[in-house]
Write a structure and sequence with these properties.
single chain, 208 residues, alpha+beta, 20% strand, binds zinc ion
Length: 208
């Protein structure tokens, strides 16, 4: 299945970049809409070794429907919500060092504004670097139903957002296709690392 292969390839690539260490993060893509069928990464699998045949097919209630062993990630509810509310065709979630640091650093303002960078043009529908992208930050929780509700409310207030951060946890973004969602991860990870390193170098120069 082409979708499973592209998700597994994305996972291995993100792992190689240090954005999905160990068994962290998760990936999904819509296989069919009616009834909903989602290819979803299984819980507890090293993302550097994820194979297409390990992807689970789940329905709209997060039940595995293709009979494979394995359990979908606890965060499946968030994926399903993004597919439903945002019309996402693919949802990708990374745990990088920089997204973790900045999700905490900017948590007090509920998000971070990313402005003036050429790489912003890699986000779907952004035509110029003269753009201010608000990346919302939500508090982490192990209660996935509550977290999915918080995310839905937050994104409802920020309809132009292409992604969000979960505090001290990671980045979520999505796209119409796996390729578009993968591009969004790469753009966000580039921008977050750039901002993080800029803050660091300024601090060093200021003697902080
Ligand atoms: Zn996570």
């Amino acid at each position: 299945m082409e979708i499973a292969s592209s998700l597994a390839a994305a996972a291995r690539g993100f792992h190689a970049r240090g954005w999905l260490m160990g068994t962290s993060g998760n990936l999904s893509a819509v296989v069919q809409r009616e009834p909903l069928q989602l290819a979803m990464s299984p819980s507890g699998v090293d993302k550097g070794e994820l194979k297409p045949e390990q992807l689970l097919s789940i329905d709209e209630n997060a039940r595995v429907v293709n009979g494979r062993p394995g359990k979908p990630s606890d965060e499946t509810l968030l994926h399903l919500r993004l597919v439903r509310d945002r019309g996402a065709g693919a949802v990708l979630h990374t745990h990088s060092v920089w997204n973790t640091i900045l999700s905490d650093f900017y948590a007090g303002t509920g998000g971070m504004a990313i402005e003036g960078y050429e790489m912003l043009k890699g986000l779907q529908g952004v035509p110029t670097h003269e753009h201010s992208e608000w990346l919302p930050i939500v508090e982490n929780s192990q209660d996935m139903t509550a977290l999915a509700e918080t995310v839905a409310q937050t994104l409802n207030e920020h309809k132009g957002a292409h992604g969000f951060l979960v505090r001290r946890h990671g980045l979520y973004t999505w796209g119409e296709t796996v390729a578009q969602a993968k591009r969004h991860i790469e753009i966000y990870e580039f921008l977050l690392e750039t901002i993080g390193r800029t803050l660091h170098i300024r601090g060093v120069h200021a003697g902080v």
